[in-house]
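Tutorial, part two.
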Amino acid sequence: MHLLATEPGIIADGSEAVDLAQTPADIVVLASADTEIALLASAQAQRRADDPRTPTLRLAPVMRLGHNFSVDLYMETAARARLVIARLLGGSAYWPYGVERLAETCRDNGTPLALLPGDDKPDPELARLSTLPADTCRRLWRYLAEGGPGNADNFLLFAASLIGCETVWAEPAPMLRAGLYWPRRATPSLAEIAAKWRSGGGVVPVVFYRALVQSGNTAPVDMLVEVLAGRTDPLNVTLSTDRANIGITGQQRPDLVGPVPQLSCVDDPDQAARRRQLINCFDQSAFALPAQFTFGSAPRNVLRGPGFFSTDLSFMKNVPIGGGARFQFRAECYNLFDNVNYGNPNTTFAAANFGRITSAGSMRQVQLGGKVLF
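Running the prediction step on this input gives:
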């Protein structure tokens, strides 16, 4: 029989046998949803980082085990586990041979087995085939059905307790159908979020699917919140010379030899220049010239520029003047609160202006206008 090797980026539809080649572990979890596997993998990584004695875990996507021979191969991993949990979308009818072999393997080896429905409805057939008590299976199912990093963490803690580990776990926490979100906050209030807003700037609501929180896949949202909260531009520190001798200038970067500098500009001590520029906007000693014929170690966009805040306001009034025509008066104000928005500092390493800000955005501007519409 032809056997496929499992490789990242390869999609298996179950028509060919595959060997996941997983080593044995204390707990084996099979799931239909890739997002659920990613959520549990992230929670397990954090648990292992906090406590290396955390029980080992293997995660397997049911879709990769569609072929009967794939199932038989994976039973070698399941047979050596101390606990097996499978959450199946569509119930036993979706994966009949897999359910049959799992139940048989766990029964023969005395391994506790929990077969959980993949949706939010009970499945009597899966409950009948499970060997763990009904209330235990329901608790495991609720952790995954509710979703979210907190429930995933407690799922692993509770699973560890089922194999004799001393853990402190909490009951599954219901997840709101809709609510407020802020990175690294469980259930923030509007007051807590408002405290993060910076004065002089607008408020940008970010709306996204609840499924992102359920699956723990909020990294893109967190990054967007961070950028909007700081209103900063990424800055790339470059060299003006061809240090690596590749025939390209202006794109190579220096070595980063210290912590990533934070923006901390000071006024130019030169009285004549003080009104025109800020200096020492970041610690220049954090960078160094790389060795000849080598590339620098500084990552791309390592620095952040100053924040940008601007509020614009517009008024419009239409006045009928007869014959179907009307006169429109407009009043527009840009940068209403006259915020000072500094330009980005010079980022060419070793240049005379390296680390200096020599520009700023426009001050408040008001314009009036009128036109006849007919």
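Confidence is low (pLDDT under 50) at residues 1-13. In part three we will examine how such features are distributed along the chain.
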